Amino acid sequence: MKSSYTVSGMTCGHCANHVTEEVSAIPGVTGVHVSVEGPMIVESGERIPFDAIVAAVAEAGAYTVVEA
Predict the structure, then answer these.
(1) Who's near 38: CB < 8 A, 6+ residues apart?
(2) What is the 3-state secondary structure (H, E, C) of 37-64?
């Protein structure tokens, strides 16, 4: 399953790396692709609760996330 999100507030690859690291740590996530200028794609075997995505992105920094 692939889910798409828009993450705001990232300005560089370093930001994207932090978001990738935190979202990858969510149980059930099998892959994450984060782009500063594009959507964040989260791959998983089952739907990941949006609250878990929001918490992981917030842990990475002062970023906001919405479902795309």
Answers:
(1) none
(2) CCCEEEEECCCCCHHHHHHHHHHHCCCE
How many CA atoms lie less than 13 Å away from 50 in the CB half-sphere?
A: 9
List the structure tokens of 29.
């996530």
Q: Provide the whole-model pTM.
A: 0.94
As a whole number of angstroms, the distance between CA 47 and CA 18 comes to 22
Determine the 3-state secondary structure of 33 from DSSP.
Answer: strand
3-class DSSP state of 66: strand
- pLDDT, residue 51, reads 97
State residue 6's pLDDT score: 96
